[in-house]
Design goal:
Strands 1, 2, 3, 4, 5, 6, 7, 8, 9 and 10 form a ten-stranded mixed β-sheet that branches. The protein is mainly β and 176 residues long. It has one helix at 33-36, and strands at residues 2-7, 13-24, 41-43, 51-66, 69-89, 95-117, 122-137, 140-143, 150-159, 166-174.
């Protein structure tokens, strides 16, 4: 179940609010294959369950002109509260433990993006995204390991006048 509310007070401004409940079946082995390439003892959960989470967010879009160049600014923030999530505990050097965590993990995401439409043939998109994910490990709330928090993207697209050919180049920088 999901609810979306969209409000456009003018043709240049749009605000969207959404919230919903989501389910996902984790791919237990393929999602942990990188951790399994080690000498660790693997401990799997006794049952295989679907993950369950509430996700809510807000998004804003603004169409404007910058020095005569049509542009679109978009910003969004989403918060996910997991009711059931499969996690990997990699803190022990001798053991890899997969387990389900109930109501003690969350993730939040902030994204800001700007698109410049220099012409119908040339477009530049600049985007920044920050992701934060936390869970309780051994009674202590910690950041989920091995997730990149910061991402920056620049994409330049050029098309022919008849739109038959499109060329694109992308620069993606990932944080530590």
């Amino acid at each position: 179940p999901r609810i979306d509310i969209k409000w456009a007070p003018s043709t240049k401004h749009t605000l969207k609010i959404s919230s919903g409940l989501g389910f996902r079946t984790p791919a237990m082995i393929s999602e942990s294959i990188g951790f399994m390439v080690s000498n660790r003892t693997l401990t799997l959960p006794s049952t295989y369950e679907a993950e369950k989470a509430w996700n809510s967010g807000i998004a804003y879009k603004f169409d404007y002109k910058l020095a005569g160049i049509p542009s679109v600014f978009e910003a969004s923030y989403f918060l996910t509260l997991f009711q059931n999530q499969m996690l990997f505990d990699i803190e022990s050097p001798t053991q890899l433990k997969l387990f389900y965590l109930q109501d003690q993990s969350r993730a939040q995401s902030l994204q800001v993006e700007n698109t410049f439409n220099f012409s119908k043939q040339v477009q530049l998109k600049l985007s920044y995204k920050n992701d934060q994910a936390y869970a309780v490990y051994s009674g202590e709330q910690k950041a989920i390991p091995l997730l990149k928090n910061d991402k920056f993207l620049a994409n330049l697209t050029v098309a022919t006048h008849n739109q038959k050919w499109r060329m694109s180049t992308t620069l993606l920088l990932n944080g530590p």
